[in-house]
């Protein structure tokens, strides 16, 4: 039995190491003062963060990512939340069940396939090389995350709360505003966060739909790795990883308050 | 269906309408456009409208009629756009080689002299009905199966029968096979690591389980690009893995880990492992905790209890996880593009090349259709399996 416990410990630790170590290993490289991404780090500086936040292309790409990320978050959260409200019944009719499957399909379709189609179609309607086009493309792949998150929370809401409000004379819109949406808020927030994160990380659709003026941070990282790798990549990765951990903490917190309330 | 139920249904449909409309316009319509580009072939029909009408009555075997020749020369004179002419020549040449020189010669003659031109005197190939067959097929139809056939390394020969392309003419089958093998390798690697890991996580509780699950979730939430960048840095010849190996004296020079298959498989396994662990874990925690002690109390050796009880029960999670991993791996683009070499590019890279590099939308669409169909079939199987599980629960 001890052999089993020992091998479990070894295998478990090795896999945790495999999963986490690559993410930790690149963090210190963000602070190198060399132009190479190698260990041992010769000296520490913040020059690559300065490069990231002040160099023209990087700065522009960060601003673009924020514009497109916010646009995507708003559009995906509104569309996804309203859509999820229509799908909240546990027993869906065949039509609604089909619609639910369609809503989740953008998560499945290979990005390159969707990218080719979008480039062809967007070019026809003048949407390529525009912010609106990129926001729409990102919303398509971000919206399933909003639907899933909002739906999960909605299905946990006790319907009797809404019925009670209605029986006390609240109009349907009032019930929605005063009861349903506040109860669904944690799901809406996590959906919005997922939508923003999806947009931030999206490369393939951006490659097909965006022009040089809509170059996002992820797109800029992609071409930097491809063409001339520099430690600015590690600095950008540092920002991403720290951002992810912060988002995870925020999400955990919003879930925690939900549990405390419920 | 009674009235309140019906009105509830109507409200639901009104609520889902905006998103449904959005996805029809910006998700379904692009996919349809891509599929149409795979089968549409409007160039010849657009460039040769009069010829299309003239060949309508032709039996496609007898010598070309005067009306056809006159219409063809008239059409050629109408083409002012060099781009359109180039596309037309390419289209005709792909059906029958020889059109490149023939068309250039014919266009020069047609633009230099007004009035009727004796095409057969100009070039005796115009007396050959097989050239007119190609013109006729191209002009009278704006739909083609050429790209779809080429996507699987097939073509139509002069008689219209489907034959294999010459081995050096296309490499799509090789790329599909490579995509399949790479996706399968990643899936197997994920099972080999993910199944024991999920079992260990499910057997623990408290902070140890949280740690193991956190280790799966953190990479899942981290940007794909960041994870790929991390592997790019680690796998370099001067990267951390190679310097560690050399420090330990396991190797004297750097082991090639980047721009080859090994690197792509390692990075893709890392990226997709969470999709294997989570479904298996969710199946395992649904298994009653007392099953293994029950098997033991009935005299089963722990190994036998594992093989006969735990493994079969976790198989459902393994199948779901494998489908998810395999399906995602099939469409991978970024990781092979950054970590792989030229011989590790998967079908997505080829599609991207045809679309952005070669501007060959027909081939991009046809290969995209192949990838899309494979993915959707796998997804349908996955949905079927998970809905069965929900029905059981």
From TrEMBL, chain A:
Record's protein name: Polyamine ABC transporter permease
Assigned keywords, A-Z: Cell inner membrane, Cell membrane, Membrane, Transmembrane, Transmembrane helix, Transport
Mode of membrane association: Multi-pass membrane protein
Lineage: superkingdom: Bacteria
Source organism: Phyllobacterium sophorae
GO cellular component terms attached to this protein's record: plasma membrane
Location in the cell: Cell inner membrane; Cell membrane
Membrane-spanning segments: 9-31, 62-87, 94-118, 130-154, 191-211, 232-253
GO BP terms in the entry: transmembrane transport
Name of one Pfam family that matches: BPD_transp_1
InterPro entries in UniProt: MetI-like (IPR000515), MetI-like_sf (IPR035906)
From TrEMBL, chain B:
Membrane spanning stretches: 180-204, 211-234, 240-259, 264-285, 361-382
Residue intervals of the ABC transmembrane type-1 domain: 176-382
Membrane topology: Multi-pass membrane protein
Pfam families xrefs: BPD_transp_1
Superkingdom to which the source organism belongs: Bacteria
Keyword Ubl conjugation: no
GO term, biological process aspect, one: transmembrane transport
Keyword Membrane among record annotations: yes
Compartments in which it is found: Cell membrane
A GO cellular component entry from the record: plasma membrane
SUPFAM superfamilies assigned: MetI-like
Keywords for the protein's UniProt record, in alphabetical order: Cell membrane, Membrane, Transmembrane, Transmembrane helix, Transport
Family per record: Belongs to the binding-protein-dependent transport system permease family. CysTW subfamily.
Protein name, per record: ABC transporter permease
Source organism of this protein record: Phyllobacterium sophorae
């Amino acid at each position: 039995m001890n052999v089993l416990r020992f091998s479990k410990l070894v295998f478990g630790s090795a896999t945790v190491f495999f999963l986490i170590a690559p993410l930790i290993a690149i963090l210190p490289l963000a602070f190198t003062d060399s132009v190479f991404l190698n260990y041992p780090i010769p000296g520490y500086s913040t020059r690559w963060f300065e490069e990231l936040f002040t160099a023209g292309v990087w700065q522009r790409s960060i601003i673009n990512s924020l514009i497109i990320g916010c646009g995507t978050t708003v559009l995906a959260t509104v569309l996804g939340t309203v859509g999820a409200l229509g799908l909240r019944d546990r027993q869906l009719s065949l039509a609604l069940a089909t619609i639910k499957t369609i809503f989740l399909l953008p998560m499945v379709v290979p990005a390159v396939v969707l990218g080719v189609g979008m480039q062809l179609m967007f070019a026809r309607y003048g949407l390529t090389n525009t912010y609106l086009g990129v926001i729409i493309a990102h919303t398509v792949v971000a919206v399933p995350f909003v639907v899933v998150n909002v739906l999960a929370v909605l299905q946990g809401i006790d319907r009797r709360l809404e019925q009670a409000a209605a029986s006390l004379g609240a109009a349907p819109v009032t019930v929605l505003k005063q009861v349903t949406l506040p109860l669904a808020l944690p799901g809406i927030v996590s959906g919005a966060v997922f939508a923003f994160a999806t947009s931030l990380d999206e490369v393939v659709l951006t490659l097909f739909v965006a022009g040089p003026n809509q170059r996002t941070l992820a797109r800029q990282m992609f071409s930097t790795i491809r063409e001339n790798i520099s430690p600015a990549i590690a600095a950008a990765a540092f920002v991403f990883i720290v951002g992810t951990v912060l988002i995870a903490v925020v999400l955990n917190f919003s879930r925690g308050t939900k549990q405390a309330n419920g | 269906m009674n009235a309140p139920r019906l009105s509830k249904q109507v409200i639901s449909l009104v609520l889902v309408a905006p998103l449904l409309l959005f996805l029809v316009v910006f998700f379904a319509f692009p996919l349809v456009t891509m599929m149409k580009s795979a089968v549409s072939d409007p160039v010849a029909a657009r460039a040769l409208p009069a010829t299309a009408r003239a060949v309508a009555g032709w039996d496609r075997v007898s010598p070309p009629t005067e009306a056809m020749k006159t219409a063809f020369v008239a059409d050629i004179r109408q083409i002012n756009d060099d781009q359109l002419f180039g596309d037309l020549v390419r289209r005709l040449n792909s059906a029958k080689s020889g059109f490149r020189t023939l068309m250039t010669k014919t266009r020069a003659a047609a633009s230099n002299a007004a009035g009727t031109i004796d095409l057969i005197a100009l070039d005796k190939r115009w007396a050959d009905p097989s050239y007119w067959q190609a013109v006729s097929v191209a002009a009278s139809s704006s739909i083609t199966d050429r790209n779809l056939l080429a996507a699987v390394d097939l073509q139509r020969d002069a008689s219209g029968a489907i034959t294999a392309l010459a081995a050096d003419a296309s490499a799509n089958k090789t790329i599909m096979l490579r995509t399949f093998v790479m996706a399968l390798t990643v899936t197997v690697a994920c099972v080999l690591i993910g199944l024991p890991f999920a079992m260990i996580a499910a057997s623990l509780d408290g902070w140890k389980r949280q740690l193991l699950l956190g280790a799966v979730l953190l990479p899942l939430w981290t940007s794909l690009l960041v994870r790929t960048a991390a592997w790019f840095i680690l796998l370099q010849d001067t990267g951390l893995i190679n310097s560690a190996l050399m420090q330990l004296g396991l190797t004297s020079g750097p082991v090639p880990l980047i721009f080859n298959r090994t690197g792509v498989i390692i990075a893709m396994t890392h990226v997709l492992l969470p999709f294997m662990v989570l479904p298996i874990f969710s199946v395992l925690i649904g298994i009653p905790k007392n099953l293994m002690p029950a098997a033991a109390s009935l005299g089963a050796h722990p190994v036998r209890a594992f093989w006969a009880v735990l493994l079969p029960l976790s198989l459902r999670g393994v199948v779901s996880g494998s489908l998810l991993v395999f399906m995602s791996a099939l469409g991978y683009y970024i990781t092979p593009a950054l970590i792989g070499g030229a011989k590790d590019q998967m079908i997505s890279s080829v599609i991207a090349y045809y679309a952005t590099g070669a501007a060959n939308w027909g081939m991009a669409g046809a290969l995209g259709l192949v990838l899309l169909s494979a993915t959707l079939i796998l997804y349908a199987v996955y949905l079927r399996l998970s809905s069965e599980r929900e029905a059981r629960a």
